[in-house]
Write a structure and sequence with these properties.
- This protein is about 25% helix and about 25% strand.
- The chain is α+β, with helices and mostly antiparallel strands.
- It starts with a strand and ends with a helix.
- The structure holds zinc ion.
- Zinc ion binds next to loops.
């Protein structure tokens, strides 16, 4: 089972999670956005955070 972490953005607009694919972590959002594959889950979380905080 892939691990998913729900970050606390605005839940009504964007719900970002990080998904792990092998040794990579990818930020994904309920709006359909997904970030680049990262080797670090922290960086994927940073991608998710910057996405959810973007206008
Ligand atoms: Zn989004």
């Amino acid at each position: 089972m892939p691990q998913q972490d729900v970050s606390t953005g605005d839940p009504e607009t964007h719900v970002a999670t990080t998904v792990e694919r092998g040794s990579f972590a990818i930020a994904r959002c309920s709006c359909g956005w997904s970030g680049p594959a990262r080797r670090s889950r922290d960086k994927a979380r940073t991608d998710a955070a910057s996405h959810t905080s973007a206008p």
